[in-house]
Amino acid sequence: MDFENYSLRRQNTNLQYKLKLTRKILNMQLEIDSLREEVNGLRDENTRLKNTISYQENGKQNKI
Q1: Cα(8)–Cα(17) distance, integer angstroms
Q2: Using CA atoms, how far apart are residues 5 and 16, in angstroms rounded to an integer?
Q3: DSSP the chain
Q4: Coiled-coil stretches, from where to where (predicted)?
């Protein structure tokens, strides 16, 4: 009986540890997804700014 009790406690401890790690991994994945969205937004903004600069430079060249 003592061994069975010990075994169940050990199994419970292991499951709690796995649950804790799973939660950490999930939180990290959510952070990664959030950062990907931020990077995509920054890329879009960068492209928009490059296009604006290119348009302005072309306008200046046409005036010369």
Answers
A1: 14
A2: 16
A3: -HHHHHHHHHHHHHHHHHHHHHHHHHHHHHHHHHHHHHHHHHHHHHHHHHHHHHHHHHHHHHH-
A4: 18-52
User: Is the pTM for the entire model greater than 0.85?
Assistant: no
- Round to whole Å and give the CA distance between 12 and 10: 5
What would the two tokens of residue 44 be? 């879009």
Q: To which residue do tokens 């990077």 refer?
A: 39
Tens of pLDDT along 3-25?
Answer: 999 999 999 999 999 999 999 99
pLDDT tens, position by position, 20-55? 999 999 999 999 999 999 999 999 999 999 999 998
